[in-house]
């Protein structure tokens, strides 16, 4: 059988339990959830209990710098959840929803792998409960209202089309939509205007949904979206167009977290899906707090490497929600470390302990970064069949030299049983946590000082450069009163630097800030570095080409 179909075949071999049974494990009755068929449901926001949130134990799963080989954060997250339940803890996974861009592009689905998966896998990877579609519609409603106001003479706010920063959104990879011109077609087609599309996971609406505390907060944040300026230089926000009410109405169901299950029948909440290279990269704050209200342990994940997802998890999400994890799991693989040690992708299955040793510099830097937040760290070696004892021992020895617990995670092959050692070490780490995290920077710091702190302390850069336009937008953000916003860096996930081809632990490099976007509704500033784009393109052979469905509705080729 093709390797890429094994995960799907394992997922399809398990019949999910009725979602009402999963809800009972969280002490929720049939009438307390909103069922979406037999195996999916939404949980009302009324189940957030701030007192229980403070008592519960949140565990953040992050990873070393990702490589084409993959690290398996979601597999470890799901396996750890099953492992914690296996050793008698009441645990729930709280993760992001997959975007169709990666599903149909190069990465594939995002529901874990092997015997550590979330099901129903096909539904979750393809549309799920409609949250992404609602986010997309709300985003594009604002685009339509902006264009209509520019076109209208009787109710025009005098918006200068040249200053409009709001873009359309679509949950698909299409490089041809990065830069477009609207209004072609004469007077009835509106005004000619430069625009473009962001992938939905990188949209500000997605960021807002994942940081909102409740429905009123969601509406207020949407109203605060900065659109652009009038011809006289006055700032225009979504609330000036009276757009926030209708946009929030479109999101009335999307704001509710989705309840599903692991292959072993343990509860999982899947909600929101911002990318970590161009957004904050974590599931919704609401989903996290619902999980913390209903379970003793919450396993959550931050996207891509710890320099992106984990940094933003601490400095943006935790600050916004007044939460803090009690342990961090750093996922590493033998094959990824060989890649960082200079081995080509086609040769990663060959034993090479020396290359693992070379690649450990990347792991070391992530350990140093995570320790700077003051939260206990456990390294999880996500095990593959080709890994040798000598290769794994190199990782164990290096972790021991940094006084960091390490566990060989075998969730892909053995589910929760293969994760019990990691679960025990995570419980031990949680018991050692001495308090809330330490931020990388203070919110009162100037923008350039915040960016410098991230670039130097987290990435290891020795210089930051700014384009004239980036300097202009930072000044505009300060003038608009957003000086205390946190920073959401947009940077390649493939390197600590902004050069995707610079592996391992690069040194003596410059972070180049070419643009800055103001996400006033989300409540952060986005410095865009290097060649980072907010609308990916498809590879030469998209994953979509191998996905199919038969006459009985059985899906194949999804991985």
Which SSEs are present, and which pair or pack?
Blueprint: H1 6-12, H2 19-25, E1 34-35, E2 41-42, H3 50-55, E3 57-63, H4 73-86, E4 91-95, H5 100-104, E5 112-113, E6 116-119, H6 121-125, H7 131-151, E7 168-170, E8 180-182, E9 193-195, E10 197-199, H8 204-211, H9 215-223, E11 226-229, E12 235-237, H10 244-250, E13 258-262, E14 267-270, H11 285-294, E15 297-301, H12 306-321, E16 327-332, H13 334-340, H14 353-371, E17 377-382, H15 389-401, E18 405-409, H16 411-414, H17 420-432, H18 447-459, E19 463-466, H19 468-479, E20 510-519, E21 524-529, E22 548-549, E23 555-556
Helix pairs in contact: 4-17, 7-8, 7-10, 9-10, 13-14, 14-15
Describe the structure.
The protein folds into 3 domains: 3-129 and 254-432, 3-Layer(aba) Sandwich (Rossmann fold), CATH 3.40.50; 132-250, Domain 2, N(10)-formyltetrahydrofolate synthetase (2-Layer Sandwich); 447-529, Formyltetrahydrofolate synthetase, domain 3 (Roll). The chain is 35% helix and 17% strand. The chain is an alpha/beta fold.
How many structural domains in the coordinates? Answer: 3
Q: Biggest β-sheet, characterized?
A: 12 strands, mixed
Helix segment count? Answer: 19
The CATH topology annotation of the largest domain reads as Rossmann fold
**CATH-level-4 superfamily name of the largest domain:** P-loop containing nucleotide triphosphate hydrolases
Radius of gyration: 23 Å
CATH class of the largest domain: Alpha Beta
The count of β-strands is 23
What's the average pLDDT? 95
- Bulk shape: globular
- In terms of DSSP E residues, the strand content is 15-25%
First-last Cα distance: 13 Å
What would you call the quaternary organization?
Answer: single chain
């Amino acid at each position: 059988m093709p390797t890429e179909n094994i995960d799907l075949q394992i997922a399809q071999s398990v019949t999910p339990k009725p979602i009402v049974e999963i809800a009972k494990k969280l002490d929720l009755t049939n009438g307390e959830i909103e069922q979406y068929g037999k195996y999916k449901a939404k949980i009302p926001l009324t189940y957030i209990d701030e007192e229980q949130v403070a008592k519960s134990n949140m565990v953040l799963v992050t990873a070393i710098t990702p490589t084409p080989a993959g690290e398996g954060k979601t597999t470890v997250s799901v396996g750890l959840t099953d492992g914690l339940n296996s050793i008698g803890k009441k645990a729930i996974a709280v993760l992001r929803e997959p975007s169709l861009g990666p599903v149909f592009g190069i990465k594939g689905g995002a529901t874990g792998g092997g015997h550590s998966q979330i099901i129903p896998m096909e539904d979750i990877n393809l549309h799920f409960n409609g949250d992404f579609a609602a986010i997309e519609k709300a985003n594009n409603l604002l685009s339509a209202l902006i264009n209509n106001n520019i076109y209208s003479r009787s109710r025009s706010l005098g918006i200068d089309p040249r200053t409009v920063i709001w873009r359309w959104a679509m949950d698909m990879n299409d490089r041809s939509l990065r830069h477009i011109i609207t209004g072609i077609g004469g007077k009835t087609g509106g005004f000619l205007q430069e625009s473009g599309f962001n992938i939905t996971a990188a949209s500000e609406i997605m960021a807002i949904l994942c940081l909102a505390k409740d429905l009123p907060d969601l509406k207020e944040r949407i109203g605060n979206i900065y659109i652009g300026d009038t011809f006289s230089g006055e700032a225009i926000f979504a609330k000036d167009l009276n757009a926030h009410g209708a946009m929030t109405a479109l999101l009335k169901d999307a704001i509710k977290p989705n309840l599903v299950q692991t292959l072993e029948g343990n509860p999982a909440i899947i909600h929101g899906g911002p990318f970590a290279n161009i957004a904050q990269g974590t599931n919704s704050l609401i989903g996290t707090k619902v999980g913390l209200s209903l379970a003793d342990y919450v396993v959550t994940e931050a996207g891509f490497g710890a320099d992106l997802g984990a940094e933003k998890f601490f400095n943006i999400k935790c600050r916004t929600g007044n939460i803090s994890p009690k342990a961090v799991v750093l996922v590493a693989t033998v094959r990824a470390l060989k890649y960082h040690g200079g081995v080509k992708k086609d040769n990663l299955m060959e034993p090479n302990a020396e290359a693992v040793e070379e690649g450990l510099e990347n792991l070391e830097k992530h350990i140093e970064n995570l320790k700077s937040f003051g939260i206990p760290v456990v390294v999880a070696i996500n095990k593959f069949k080709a890994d040798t004892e000598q290769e794994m021992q190199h990782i164990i020895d290096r972790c021991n030299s940094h006084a960091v617990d390490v566990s060989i995670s075998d969730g892909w092959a053995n589910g929760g049983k293969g994760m019990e050692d990691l679960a025990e070490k995570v419980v031990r780490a949680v018991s050692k946590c001495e308090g809330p995290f330490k931020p990388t920077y203070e919110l009162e710091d100037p923008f350039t000082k915040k960016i410098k702190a991230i670039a130097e302390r987290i990435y290891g850069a020795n210089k930051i450069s700014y384009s004239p336009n980036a300097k202009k937008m930072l000044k505009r953000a300060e003038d608009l009163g957003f000086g205390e916003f946190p920073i959401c860096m947009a940077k390649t996930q493939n390197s600590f630097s902004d050069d995707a081809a610079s592996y391992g632990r690069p040194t003596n490099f410059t972070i180049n800030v070419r643009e800055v976007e103001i996400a006033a509704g989300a409540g952060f500033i986005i410095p865009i570095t290097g060649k980072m784009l907010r609308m990916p393109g498809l590879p030469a052979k998209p994953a979509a080409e191998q996905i199919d469905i038969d006459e009985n509705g059985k899906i194949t080729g999804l991985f």
